[in-house]
Write a structure and sequence with these properties.
Blueprint lengths: L2 H13 L3 H14 L8 E5 L4 H16 L5 E8 L4 H13 L4 E5 L2 H4 L7 H19 L4 E3 L4 H14 L9 E3 L7 E3 L7 H10 L17 H22 L3 H8 L10 E3 L5 E3 L4
Parallel strand pairs: 1-2, 1-4, 2-3, 4-6
Antiparallel strand pairs: 5-6, 7-8
Helix pairs in contact: 7-9
Length: 275
Amino acid sequence: MESLSINTIAEESLRKKYKKDIFTPFCKAINQYNLISPGDKIAVCMSGGKDSFIMAKLFMELKRHNKIPFELVFLCMDPGYSTPNLKLIKTNAKTLNIPLTIFKSDIFKNVEHVEKSPCYLCARMRRGHLYAKAKELGCNKIALGHHFDDTIETTLMGMLFSGQFQTMMPKIKSKNWEGMTLIRPMYFVREQFIINWAQHCNLQFLQCACKFTQTDNNCHADTSRRQLTKKLIASLSQTDPNTPANIFASTNNVNLSTILSYKDKSGINHNFYEE
């Protein structure tokens, strides 16, 4: 397959074959959560995986309709990728006709000897670098490729492994970067459809470029917990196919009168016996 034909297949499949399962949920999240406003300049953050690449193509398709005037920057941070991984990212960007802006950081090097919660530190540093570069380029929003399954897995992981109930939000105003907002337009897109799309287009993406997941440390533990949660949801879904949708729905159906305690937006804790 020539590069142009792969790109054509990728774009046409989002307009036809996967419109209902991918493009429509993408647009639904944008409309329901008001993720894009006229005049926005959005940094579409590209990690090299399937989720960020399909998000880029979805944004390009949305831009083609031009119902809302907005600008796009396709931003990829190189935290210390291996040469083969970086080459794969560049190849896929060229194949899919995505004008990628790549900038370097030393995040992998900086967290290399961190023993406690390297994933947490790495994620915070990545976010900070992306905000900084996006703002430098005149963007007011950054878009991340977290999808529906990421959301329900994160919700359940918080309950099972951290003893808390919270979810991954579709839109967050940054507290540290004035005028910047994080959005997750893939919020309603199921991961299996993304996998199907990649296979349909005969595309190979990075699975995980983090070298620390291969070692026996906390980063590996975090990855194992997510995989365990993913398998648990899949297992429960065999008995009740509504399980994923119910987990997601629970984040919209919180009854505070049946909650022992909760924190408000100011971080103040409230207990049920206050009333």
